[in-house]
């Protein structure tokens, strides 16, 4: 979807149409969750500090996020996807992979199906979507950004080599800013440069990810579209409007965060063995502390008690600007419990 959260806000409030909009908090500690294309022209981006965004675009309008509304529209869009294929792998509320090799409807062409789906989305929601079409996930993902907003781009097998070799490293899906900078430092700026490095050198520099980089610069990505993706972690965090120093203030915020995390865990029907406390100082120095228990966390009170222990083990000699709590190492409630097998003699 194109600037999904911001586009929904413009859809529901016509007064925002054509104006630079940011979904997020406008406070000194606020962060932009999404920006409309009008705001992006000024350099406003998601995950940017709200103060920085306001500096770049003084007329920027901040809107508080309404995630229940975004989920509602996301559900409508996924219902359209499932009309064409059961192989739908959601990445977030506004993005998904679809494998239409054996589509349930539409013409026998991934490009025509993608166009038809985009039209259906607009008819149902009045929102625009962009699509990337290719023979694997990496190429489809990168292609989806080429003609945004409201566009489609196709990378056929015969065009893949030229497309990848001329692609800037910073636009490779799976290569973040830090890795891109490291590659730039050794003279790798485009796909053709990355292709010159052998597998052993890439693994030496980047560990297991080096194998992925070696493959994608050759157009190779054999990951299937997975209709069900197992959740690896679940959490919540809070950035404070002012730095917190006092223990009772931190405990009060931790209570609110633990309450939200527990609600999310109950909705997802999961139990966790591992919990991680994240905290960020006023100078942006960040730390995490984790603990894994033998059983599973069975109540919100237990989660809060264990989280307090982790927090007390910290040396908070500087102001805290952010606290977060994450659960991982899950057991899903619908999973069957282990069964003891017996052997008869």
From TrEMBL:
The active site of this protein is located at 95
Offer one example of a GO biological process linked to this entry. DNA repair
Entry coiled-coil feature ranges: none
User: Tell me, what is one Gene Ontology molecular-function annotation carried by this entry?
Assistant: damaged DNA binding
* Site (Substrate discrimination): residue numbering on this chain: 5
Q: Which InterPro entries match?
A: DNA/RNA_pol_sf, DNA_pol_Y-fam_lit_finger_sf, DNA_pol_Y-fam_little_finger, DNA_polymerase-Y, DNApol_IV, PolY_HhH_motif, Rev_trsase/Diguanyl_cyclase, UmuC
| Pfam families assigned | IMS, IMS_C, IMS_HHH
Q: Where would one find the signal peptide in this protein? A: none
Give start and end of each UmuC domain. Answer: 1-176
Q: Which PROSITE patterns match?
A: UMUC
Subcellular localization(s) per the UniProt record:
Cytoplasm
Cellular component GO terms, alphabetical: cytosol
Ordered alphabetically, the record's keywords are: Cytoplasm, DNA damage, DNA repair, DNA replication, DNA-binding, DNA-directed DNA polymerase, Magnesium, Metal-binding, Mutator protein, Nucleotidyltransferase, Transferase
Q: How does it assemble?
A: Monomer.
Q: Which family does it belong to?
A: Belongs to the DNA polymerase type-Y family.
Q: Which HAMAP family match?
A: DNApol_IV
Q: What does this protein do?
A: Poorly processive, error-prone DNA polymerase involved in untargeted mutagenesis. Copies undamaged DNA at stalled replication forks, which arise in vivo from mismatched or misaligned primer ends. These misaligned primers can be extended by PolIV. Exhibits no 3'-5' exonuclease (proofreading) activity. May be involved in translesional synthesis, in conjunction with the beta clamp from PolIII.
Record-given protein name: DNA polymerase IV
Query: Organism, per UniProt?
Result: Tangfeifania diversioriginum
């Amino acid at each position: 979807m194109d600037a999904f959260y911001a586009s929904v806000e413009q859809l529901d409030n016509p007064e925002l149409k054509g104006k630079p909009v940011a979904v997020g908090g406008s406070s000194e500690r606020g962060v932009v969750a999404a920006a409309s294309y009008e705001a992006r022209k000024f350099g406003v981006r998601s995950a940017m500090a709200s103060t920085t965004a306001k500096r770049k675009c003084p007329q920027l309008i901040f809107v508080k996020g309404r995630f229940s509304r975004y989920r509602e529209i996301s559900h409508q869009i996924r219902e359209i996807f499932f009309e064409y294929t059961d192989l739908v792998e959601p990445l977030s509320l506004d993005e998904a992979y679809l494998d239409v090799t054996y589509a349930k409807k539409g013409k026998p062409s991934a490009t025509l199906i993608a166009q038809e789906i985009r039209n259906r989305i607009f008819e149902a929601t009045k929102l625009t979507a962009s699509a990337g079409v290719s023979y694997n996930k990496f190429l489809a993902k990168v292609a989806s950004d080429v003609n945004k907003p409201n566009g489609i781009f196709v990378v056929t097998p015969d065009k893949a080599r030229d497309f990848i070799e001329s692609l800037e490293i910073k636009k490779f899906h799976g290569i973040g800013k830090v890795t891109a900078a490291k590659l730039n430092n050794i003279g790798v700026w485009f796909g053709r440069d990355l292709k010159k490095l052998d597998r052993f050198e890439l693994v030496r520099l980047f560990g297991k990810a080096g194998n992925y980089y070696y493959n994608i610069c050759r157009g190779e990505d054999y990951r299937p579209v997975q209709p069900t993706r197992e959740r690896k972690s679940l959490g919540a965090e809070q950035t404070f409007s002012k730095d917190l120093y006092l223990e009772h203030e931190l405990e009060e915020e931790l209570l609110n965060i633990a309450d939200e995390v527990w609600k999310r865990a109950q909705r997802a029907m999961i139990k966790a063995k591992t919990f991680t406390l994240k905290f960020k100082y006023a100078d942006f120095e960040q730390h995490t502390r984790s603990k894994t228990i033998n059983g599973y966390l069975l109540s919100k009170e237990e989660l809060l008690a264990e989280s307090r222990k982790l927090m007390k083990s910290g040396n908070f000699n500087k102001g805290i600007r952010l606290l977060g709590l994450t659960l991982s190492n899950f057991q899903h409630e619908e999973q069957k419990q282990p069964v003891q097998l017996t052997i008869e003699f």
